[in-house]
Each structure stands twice: as C-alpha cells, then as structure tokens.
Design goal:
Chain lengths: 198, 219
C-alpha cells in the first residue's frame, strides 16, 4: 500500500495536469421484486439521462480533468428496473409524444446533479461519486401525482486498482446504488401508486 | 573489508528480524447454538462504506478463496454472485447493518424463498481494514547519464484487524464472532537497489480469519 502511494505520488508529480476520457457501460442485475402485469407504464428520459457527458473543472494544479461519457447506461439501468416491476413497460421519446390514456402510469427521469471527488481534490485515497435524479410520475391524464428525488453514492479506494479502474468502479457503485434506492422506493410506494391511478 | 562485511551481515539479519516481527491475535465468541450440514451455504458480506467501514475488496476476494480451500463441508456463495442474485437487498446502502434489521428483510417472501432455495443458512458480516499506524525514514533515488540508484531506509507499521459476525438467517440471531488482528513492520533498505521487505499483515489476517471461520463451523 505504502509503495503504491509513493509511486502514485511520483506518477502524479511527473505527469502533472492531464485530461482523462472514460466511457461508462455498466449495468445492474434485474431486481428481485414481484412484477405487476395489470398496469400499463410508459417511461421517458431527458437528454441528460439518454446520453450524458460529464466534464470536470480542474481545481488543483496536479489534478486531471475528466470527461465521462455515460452513453445510454442510465437509461438502460432504469429500464431494467421498470421491466422488473411492470410486465407492460414501454419507452417513449418524450413526454409530449405520449397520448392520453395510452398508459396508466407515466414515469419521467431527469438527471439533476452529478458530483465527482478525486483523491487529489479530497486529499484522500478514494474516488467518490454522488448522483441525484428527479423522477416525475404522472397518471393517465398526464397530471403529476408524485415527485421523487433518488440519489446514489459510490466510493472506491485507489489501492488495488490499475489505470482508471478505481473511478470506473466508483461510478458503477453509484449507479448501482441509484438502482437500489429506486427499487426500494418503488417497492415501498407501489400500493400508494396503485391507489392513485385507480 | 571484513568489518564492512560484518556490518552489512549484521544489518541484514536485523532487517529480517524486524520484518519477521509481526504479531497475530485471534478471538472467538459463541453466543448461540449452531450447525451446518453438507449442501448448505454461507455468504460473506462486508459492512457498508456508507457506515464508514473500509474493508478492502481484495481482502473479501482473499477470504472467499481461502475459505473455499480450507473446507469442503458447506458451499460458499461468492459475495458478488450473492449481491447480484438478491439485488438490491444486500447492497452497501440497503444490506442489514445489525441483526435487528434482519426480520424486516426476511419478512419479504421473495427474499426468504430465494434464501431457502439456495440453502443459504449463514450470513457472515465482515468489518475491519488494514491501517498504517506509523512510518519513518527517508529514501531518495537519483538517475544520471552514468546510471542511477537509491539510498536510504524507510519503514512503516501496519495493522490488519478484521472481525466476522456470524448470523443465522433461519433463526435471525447472531451465533458468534471471530476476529483476527495482525500487526507487522515493513522496511525498505536501499543501497543502490531498494529491497522491500514487507510484512504481509493483510494476507496473514485473511488466512487467520478464514481458519477461524472454518474452525467455527467444524466444531
């Protein structure tokens, strides 16, 4: 560990300020939940969920700038969760394209914030990621019935990881945590949702 | 020349003695009756980083592999496989942190049925980490057109301290705790070439704790 830290400091000192580009393609397993076959659900995703690209500001001289391309990872994760809960889940391009009465429940996803702490910024030996989504739920008349904030946190010690693996793992853990928190929220509020749309 | 050789030899021997100077402490506590049959399974799960726990991923990998080698009575479902099969109920932010959290989770029929189907009888919660307590010395390296080299001496003390709390999932009680704590000193003397002499406290703690867990279930 100590040797790794010495070499890491040496590498940072030698390399100075650089730009790192990474692409996220993580996924989650299908949640272990009971599915509902009665409700017709349509989901839509804002652009920052469909194809988000994060670019960090350089705060420290020795820090790297990060460009993180999420591709459609977030959309895929939310779709896996919704497909586990609802047998009848369809995706729409946007909210306006969803016709009245075509769904019992409409769920919209919006990325509200993404925060990254590197070991250089936080003066520690880990990457920390925090993500927050705003999730709007509408009934079949497209009236807003619920508004949820779902967050996710992931951290990864740099210790045993090579290259960008530590930051990639921290992001995967944060997205997995988002999926876990959304699943638990859906599971606990399912009866309330059913009551609201019936 | 003979004097120099004697000094070097003495220094080398003392270095080996310093690096070999590690201590291991092992504890076991039984709080309820337990037994495991052939075909039943256990799972190792580290406490969450959400609660400040810092058990390393490589320690969990080592513990899974070491326990697999040390016994053939029961099955060990790897931590990653278990978390994927039961997603999202045993994630860092959702897994039960105390034994009192278990009933709420096990009341969910879908989880209880899957645990029964896989014959998972015990969940072993791991806490702890490897810490550097103190370090000292100086090591400097230089390189020029004629070559390069390092000179100096650095050392540090590590303590690897881990505890396993064994939960019976059918009775929803903690049946016991085992722990392993290993302290050791690592040194890097450098005369042109640095020679790291490392006290492998984490891997020794991994071996110690896996022997403790295997021994716990063999009684």
């Amino acid at each position: 560990m100590k040797i790794k830290l010495i070499f890491l400091n040496l590498i940072i000192f030698v390399s100075g300020c650089t730009s790192q580009s990474i692409t996220i393609s993580t996924s989650i397993p299908p949640p272990l939940v009971i599915s509902n076959s009665d409700l017709r659900v349509v989901s839509f995703f804002n652009n920052n969920v469909n194809n988000y690209q994060f670019k960090s500001e350089v705060l420290e001289k020795t820090d790297n700038s990060w460009e993180i391309n999420f591709q459609d990872t977030q959309k895929n994760i939310f779709t896996i969760i919704l497909n586990s809960f609802f047998d009848n889940n369809n995706i729409s391009d946007n909210f306006d394209n969803i016709s009245d009465t075509s769904a019992d429940l409409i769920i919209g996803f919006n990325l509200e914030s993404f925060e990254l702490l590197t070991p250089q910024i936080a003066s520690n030996d880990k990457y920390s990621i925090w993500i927050k989504y705003k999730i709007n739920i509408y009934d079949q008349k497209k009236d807003l019935i619920q508004n949820w904030s779902i967050t996710g946190y992931g951290e990864q010690l740099t210790g045993a990881f090579k290259g960008n693996d530590a930051i990639l793992n921290a992001i995967s853990l944060a997205l997995r945590d988002v999926g876990a928190n959304l699943t638990i929220k859906l599971e606990s509020d399912m009866q309330e949702l059913l009551n609201l749309v019936q | 020349m003979i004097v120099v050789n004697k000094i070097l030899t003495t220094g080398f021997i003392s270095l080996i003695i310093i690096s070999g100077c590690s201590t291991t402490r092992i504890d076991e506590e039984v709080s309820a009756a337990y037994s495991i049959k052939e075909g039943e399974s256990i799972v190792l799960l580290s406490d969450s980083y959400h609660t400040g726990n810092k058990t390393e991923n490589d320690f969990m990998d080592c513990l899974n592999k070491s326990l697999l080698r040390k016994q053939n009575t029961f099955n060990i479902i790897s931590t990653n496989d278990f978390q994927n099969m039961f997603y999202p109920w045993f994630e860092p932010s959702t897994a039960p942190q105390k034994i009192d959290d278990l009933p709420k989770l096990l009341n969910k029929e879908i989880i209880k049925n899957k645990l029964d189907q896989l014959q998972i009888k015990y969940l072993i919660k791991i806490t702890g980490e490897t810490k550097t307590n103190a370090s000292s010395g100086a090591l400097s390296c230089a390189a020029g057109p004629g070559g390069g080299g390092c000179f100096g001496f650095a050392w540090w003390d590590d303590t690897s301290s881990y505890e396993a709390s064994i939960w019976d999932l059918s009775q929803e009680v903690s049946v016991g705790n085992v722990s392993a704590s290993v302290s050791g000193t690592s040194v890097i003397p450098a005369i042109i070439i640095p020679i790291p002499i490392l006290a492998r406290t984490q891997s020794n703690a991994c071996v110690g704790l896996s022997e403790q867990i295997a021994g716990f279930f063999s009684k």
